[in-house]
Design a protein that fits this description.
The structure holds two protein chains of two kinds.
Chain A: H1 2-15, H2 17-45, E1 57-64, E2 72-74, H3 81-88, E3 92-107, E4 110-119, H4 123-126, E5 131-134, H5 136-139, E6 145-149, H6 150-157, E7 166-174, E8 177-189, E9 202-205, H7 216-219, E10 227-232, H8 238-252, E11 256-258, E12 261-263, E13 269-275, H9 279-282, H10 295-322, H11 324-336, H12 341-378, H13 390-416, H14 420-423, H15 433-469, E14 479-483, H16 487-502, E15 507-513, E16 525-529, E17 539-545, H17 550-554, E18 558-561, H18 577-583, E19 585-590, H19 591-597, H20 602-605, E20 609-614, E21 621-631, E22 646-649, E23 657-662, H21 667-681, E24 688-691, H22 692-698, H23 701-735, H24 737-745, H25 750-784, H26 796-822, H27 825-830
Parallel strand pairs in A: 4-9, 6-8, 17-22, 19-21
Antiparallel strand pairs in A: 1-2, 1-10, 1-13, 3-4, 3-7, 3-10, 5-8, 6-9, 7-8, 11-12, 14-23, 14-24, 15-23, 16-17, 16-20, 18-21, 19-22, 20-21
Helix pairs in contact in A: 1-2, 1-12, 2-10, 2-12, 2-23, 10-13, 10-15, 10-23, 11-13, 12-13, 15-23, 15-25, 15-26, 16-21, 23-26, 25-26
Chain B: E1 2-12, E2 17-28, E3 33-37, H1 44-51, E4 59-64, E5 67-68, H2 74-84, E6 85-88, H3 100-109, H4 115-129, H5 144-156, E7 162-166, H6 174-189, E8 193-197, H7 201-206, E9 209-214, E10 217-223
Parallel strand pairs in B: 3-8, 3-9, 6-7, 7-8
Antiparallel strand pairs in B: 1-2, 1-4, 4-5, 9-10
The chains are: A alpha+beta, B alpha/beta.
Chain lengths: ~850, ~230
């Protein structure tokens, strides 16, 4: 029996090649999209699942809510917190702090700049990375050991056994010195998978006494330099512990006097817990080691996948019911011969499942073809790991069964319901009239989805374009950054490097400085006040250290006053707390700070003074800052983040980077020329350059990828929907041959008939627009609301999507309409 | 074999009610070869469909082998039909996608019969109607007469006690028509009851009995001597 179903199904597929091709390719594209998106979603949801006991591991996150500006949030937490937490919360079984050290490692004559992860010795009690060699208990016994990843073991030691080997490392334990320290390899861990929020190559023990000259690293409550991970006891309730954090910060975070009042930092600070597996998708803000994912886009893409599949299923349903008349005779005959309705339903369902199965095979091939490009766009290494992936295969077949049943059920019901007595007499066709209306409704749904996706694509694209072309407050073109690895190195060579680079041909300006745009760090926030103008809430401004030439090199426009200038001795930021208190400093503020401080105009601000803390918070000293100039807002981060109030000082202690503006010379040539100078000055230090335009683009990578994927999937949705429309048009033209014949006999011209048919197909697309527009509008309004700087949606995306869809629909049906309209009516009428 | 008593069938659309059969009384006995004749629209096909359980009467009684089936469900009728009745149509109604063999075999697929036996029976019946050399051809590759012989083979392969034929020669030339009628007569002689709708007096002449229908009534009945 089943063999007979199969025979009929296969021969039917072969006989009606157009319909079969539309069905199978539509489904294949739909399934392929689904698989691709599913791979992405699965990857995003699988982060950090390789770490044992993940359900009990949490990261402590910090948030500062400062009135008058967007909150400062991050995955980092204060260094002193963990030790006290372990005493205060019995529910915590173990905890570990991770930190980062800038190091250079030597291998023979070569020097590499490496990110060393610092960890408490409890590392493996919490984040139990699988070791391939060494002993977890002893690996981090003291600060002379290092645990390295398998790939780093290969990089430094090749095939030799890494355990017991020594790496010559240098550390910057103070702003001005570099310490050499050989590290003994004590253990080797398996490389972390891509789907981890952690990026660890080397682990060494945190030794707080190493950082006596940089006490803020681990001892400060408001300088956040560590990540804190907690492993809770099985019975402990994370929500309960989180509740206790309010009292915990009130007890422990020191307050300090500011302008005569006691400023309680804990009032503005909130600690919270994020589950290990949620960190990738839910943790936001600063201190993310890798670009975080976004729960919203994961959900969005899952919905998009479902919709594309739905469109493909609709094609199947539509074409099957449209073709019902052609199958009617077979159905009737089977009934005459004794088939019962459930048997017929089973037959048609197995047919649609078979079709879906063929589509799956093609889809898998399509996935393999698309995967390299897909991975490039997403910057991931997704692969359908078929080996040992029982669940994945099961899921695929489940999907096929689902698609087959969803798409085939309605046609199966319609076809199996035919009354044989009506059909068998004289081969009458039995197009189910009711199904015509259903087909139209389904076409409306298909196009509503497609148009909705197109609108979303257009909006996402315009927003990304807007973001990328938004005025960043400086001219990012033709700027190159050279970075140093330590403050010591910077102090040693940066000034000489500047002099030498300035002599290179094509170099028009050079500056050195601390934090220069683009820079995603949100650090060095200082509380300031305008004397005599008390503010009800603390005013927090970011402090940026730049050299005199910064403004001219970056082309930052001056609104009032003057730039920092070497001619004014007071423009140099004093070194040491006493000098700061005694002399104060001159600063430049940006427009945002101007508003935040409450000055009416740039001119009014010039010459005004601000009071700010001096030295470290614990020292309890203040200094006066004099505003000598006001500049436009400079975007350090992407436009996803609001611009913040900031002021610029010339604090040469923080100068670490060099920026070159060039003209009339190629970037790479300049890079090589600079490298030559670098190697003379610092032969044993790695040379790192970046180009500012690329760095700016990098900030929009996630949006870029999203836009590309949206566009691709929206395009696919349209293609599938049009495939269906093409099939329906072919069918309709065939079915209406006689009607067209009569119309032509009665005097209709070819153009009249084409217009008639095209108009018939335009109606559902027009209705689809009316459904898609409001839905897309609401969706996109919410999406745009996440951006402080956003486009006005306007009507253009809607018009583009709507007109585009109608045009595509026209092109799709026009050829059929034209062919039907041109046929000789005699043939049409004689044939029945 | 079957008895129709006071059997009526009417079709209803939104506005019009059409009576296709009006209080028809017919009895067909085992082994009979009956021809139903009458002008277009007289209800011949409706009658045949009701006898074949493809349609249900509006009122009246239908006894099939002594069993009242007028109120039976579609599934139940399907079972009785499967066991007892074979159909032959004017337009053959072969499935284009299946070969001759597969078309004939289709009639056995809905019976629980093993593949071996199916093959044997299909081959036997194909030989009987003289199309065994065409087993692997598709219907479109056959002449009309050959197609109808395939249809006859399909109708008889399940050994039905009753064959219903709706103008079996209507689409055939006289030569091929005669061949098909020969087949039917042979089957009848072997014991199969046959009810045939026809426009053709020649075909009707082959039957043992002629029932004339006009406007849903049985007009006259005449037993015709077997040829």
């Amino acid at each position: 029996m089943f063999k007979n179903y199969l025979t009929v199904a296969v021969r039917n597929l072969l006989k009606h090649r157009l319909y079969s091709a539309i069905n199978i390719f539509g489904l294949a594209i739909g399934i392929a999209s689904c698989i691709l998106i599913a791979l992405f979603v699965r990857d995003e949801l699988s982060y950090d699942s390789f770490i044992p006991n993940g359900e009990r591991i949490y990261r402590v996150e910090t948030r500062f809510d400062i009135p008058g500006r967007s909150p400062i949030i991050g995955g980092v937490s204060p260094g002193p917190a963990l030790a006290i937490m372990l005493k205060d919360f019995p529910g915590i079984e173990a905890g570990v702090r991770l930190g980062r050290a800038r190091t250079t490692f030597k291998r023979g004559a070569e020097v590499f700049r490496e990110d060393l992860t610092l960890a408490d010795p409890s590392m493996f009690d919490v984040l139990d990375l699988p070791l391939v060699a060494g002993d977890k208990a002893k690996a981090l016994a003291d600060n002379t050991g290092v645990v390295i990843s398998e790939s780093m073991a290969r990089k430094y030691f090749g095939a030799a056994s890494p355990i017991g080997q020594v790496i010559d490392a240098t550390f910057s334990f103070s702003p001005t010195e570099v310490t050499a320290r050989p590290l003994l390899v004590t253990a080797v861990f398996k490389d972390l998978p891509d789907n981890s929020h952690l990026k660890i190559d080397f682990i060494s023990r945190i030794n707080e006494s190493d950082y006596e000259k940089m006490p803020w690293m681990f001892k400060d409550w408001t300088s956040l330099n560590t990540w804190t991970y907690l492993k809770l006891r099985s019975a402990a309730d994370a929500a309960n512990i989180e509740k206790g954090f309010k009292a915990f910060t009130a007890r422990n975070v020191p307050s300090f006097p500011f302008s005569g009042k006691e400023l309680k930092i804990s009032d503005y600070m909130t600690l919270s817990l994020v589950k290990l597996e949620d960190i990738h998708l839910k943790s936001k803000g600063m201190g993310q080691v890798k670009p975080p994912g976004d729960a919203k886009s994961v959900a969005t893409f899952a919905v998009v996948a479902a919709m594309i599949l739905l469109i493909a299923c609709i094609n199947f349903t539509n074409l099957a019911t449209a073709r019902a008349s052609q199958r009617a005779r077979e159905v009737a005959l089977r009934k005459v011969l004794g088939a019962k309705r459930p048997q017929l339903i089973a037959q048609f369902l197995s047919e649609s499942v078979l079709t879906a199965l063929v589509a799956l095979v093609i889809a898998v091939a399509l996935v393999h073809l698309a995967l390299p490009t897909y991975n490039t766009v997403l910057q991931k290494q997704l692969a359908p790991d078929l080996a040992g992936a029982g669940p994945l295969i099961a899921a695929m077949f489940g999907l096929i069964a689902l698609v087959g049943v969803v798409a085939g059920l309605y046609p199966a019901m319609v076809l199996s319901g035919f009354l044989p007595s009506r059909i068998l007499k004289a081969n009458k066709s039995a197009a189910a009239e009711g199904s015509g209306r259903l087909r139209t409704a389904l076409v409306v749904i298909q196009f509503a989805i497609s148009i909705g996706l197109l609108v979303c694509t257009a909006v996402v694209y315009s927003q990304t374009l807007y973001a990328k072309s938004m005025n960043v407050g400086y001219d990012p073109q033709d700027l190159m950054v050279v970075r140093t690895t330590s403050q010591k190195l910077a102090d040693d060579i940066l000034r000489t490097l500047r002099e030498e680079v300035a002599k290179l041909p094509g170099v028009t300006a050079v500056t050195i400085g601390g934090s220069m745009p683009p820079d995603s760090n949100n650090n060095n926030n200082n509380i300031v006040e305008v004397p005599g103008r008390p503010s009800p809430t603390p005013i927090l401004l970011e402090q940026k250290s730049v050299d005199y030439e910064f403004f001219t090199t970056f082309k930052v426009p001056l609104l009032a006053g003057r730039y920092l200038d070497e001619a004014h001795g007071g423009d140099d930021f004093p070194h040491g707390t006493d000098a700061q208190v005694r002399n104060g400093a001159n600063i430049i503020i940006n427009e945002n700070a101007l508003r935040r401080l409450g000055f009416a105009s740039p001119q009014e601000a010039v010459g005004q003074q601000l009071r700010s803390g001096a030295g470290r918070a614990q020292e309890n000293k203040t200094m006066m800052l004099t505003i000598v100039g006001v500049v436009g807002d400079v975007a350090y981060r992407s436009v996803r983040d609001e611009m913040q109030g900031m002021y610029f000082t010339r604090n040469s202690e923080e100068f670490r980077n060099l920026v070159v503006r060039y003209d009339g010379v190629a970037g790479p040539a300049l890079r090589d020329a600079t490298a030559k100078i670098w190697r003379e000055l610092a032969p044993s230090d790695p040379y790192t350059t970046q180009f500012v335009p690329q760095l700016v683009q990098e900030q929009y990578r996630a949006e870029d990828a999203q836009t590309k994927l949206f566009a691709a999937f929206a395009g696919l949705a349209i293609v599938i929907a049009c495939l269906g429309l093409y099939g329906l048009a072919a069918f309709t033209a065939e079915r209406r041959t006689k009607e067209i014949g009569i119309r032509k006999v009665l005097g209709a011209k070819v153009s009249d008939v084409v217009r008639l048919l095209v108009w018939d197909f335009s109606k559902p697309v027009l209705v689809a627009n009316l459904l898609a527009w409001p839905a897309a509008y609401m969706l996109m309004r919410d999406w745009l609301n996440d951006y402080p700087y956003r486009i006005d949606m306007g009507s253009i995306p809607f018009a583009v999507a709507g007109i585009g869809a109608i045009a595509i629909a026209w092109i799709t049906v026009a050829s059929h309409a034209a062919r039907a309209a041109q046929s000789n009516p005699i043939h049409a009428l004689r044939y029945e | 074999m079957l008895t129709l008593q006071n059997l009526s069938k009417s079709y209803r659309t939104d506005t019009v009610e059409t009576t296709a059969l009006n209080a028809v009384n017919i009895e067909i006995r085992q082994g009979e070869f009956a021809a139903i004749m009458g002008p277009s629209g007289c209800g011949k096909s409706t009658l045949l469909n009701i006898i074949g359980m493809l349609d249900t009467p509006t009122s009246g009684s239908y006894l099939f082998k002594g069993e009242e089936i007028a109120g039976y469900s579609e599934a139940k009728l399907s079972d009785i039909r499967k066991e007892n009745i074979g159909f032959i149509f004017q337009s053959f109604n072969l499935i284009d996608e299946l070969t001759v063999f597969e078309n004939v075999e289709l009639a056995l697929l809905y019976h629980k019969i093993g593949a071996q036996e199916r093959k044997a029976r299909v081959e036997a019946v194909m030989a009987k109607v003289g199309i065994d050399h065409r087993a692997e051809h598709r219907p479109a590759q056959l002449s009309g007469g050959q197609q109808q012989r395939v249809a006859v083979a399909r109708a008889v392969v399940s050994n039905p006690s009753l064959i219903l034929a709706d103008e079996p020669t209507g689409n055939l030339d006289s030569h091929h028509g005669a061949e098909v009628m020969d087949l039917l007569q042979t089957l009848n002689r072997e014991g199969t009851t046959i009810v045939m709708v026809t426009h053709s007096n020649i075909d009707a002449g082959r039957a043992k009995r002629v029932i004339n229908l006009l406007d849903g009534h049985v007009m006259a009945e005449g037993l015709i001597k077997a040829a």
